[in-house]
Write a structure and sequence with these properties.
The chain is mainly alpha-helical. The chain is built from 6 helices and 4 strands; from the N terminus they run ααββααββαα. β3 and β4 form a beta hairpin. It comes from Microbacterium bandirmense.
């Protein structure tokens, strides 16, 4: 089952989270845990929502305020989104390497030196990787560099 699929009615989600349904309604009103909605407007909670409700209950019992919990949940969502994006970008980089044999990838080292990156080498998180696509420059209308030679020939 997809962890983000909104399948649980409020009574079921409240039971799974160990809370009263009115607490779930309050959390929805303040934007703490916002469930999906049916066409008729009924709340539908996902398993991820239920996990967040449990986390809210735990953090609240430890003395954390609801605004602090809301901020923490927002940051967790952002980290999850960024991790997905990193996986997407790594896949795109792998596909680019596979589709363009002979193309070399370079990284800027900590001292500013340029170092080639092998296809099986993992880049340290502190290193930035920039891919240069000569065709992309031409499409963007940039007529500097190697494109100028094409125009003159």
């Amino acid at each position: 089952m997809d962890a983000d699929a909104p399948v649980f009615a409020i009574a079921v989600a409240a039971e799974l989270a160990g809370m009263h349904p009115q607490t779930l309604r309050q959390y929805d009103r303040i934007g703490l845990v916002v469930p999906g909605r049916t066409r008729g407007g009924s709340r539908r909670y996902s398993m991820r929502d239920v996990e967040q409700l449990r986390e809210v209950a735990q953090l609240s019992s430890e003395g954390m305020s609801l605004p602090a919990i809301a901020r923490l949940l927002d940051l967790e969502d952002e980290v999850r989104m960024l991790r997905r994006r990193v996986v997407e970008l790594e896949g795109a980089l792998r596909a680019e390497r596979d589709n363009r044999p002979g193309v070399r990838v370079f990284a800027a080292g900590a001292t500013g030196s340029i170092v080639p990156v092998g296809s099986s080498r993992r880049i340290r998180r502190s290193t930035e990787v920039v891919l240069w696509h000569p065709r992309a420059r031409r499409a963007a209308g940039d007529e500097r560099g190697s494109d100028r030679a094409d125009d003159e020939g």
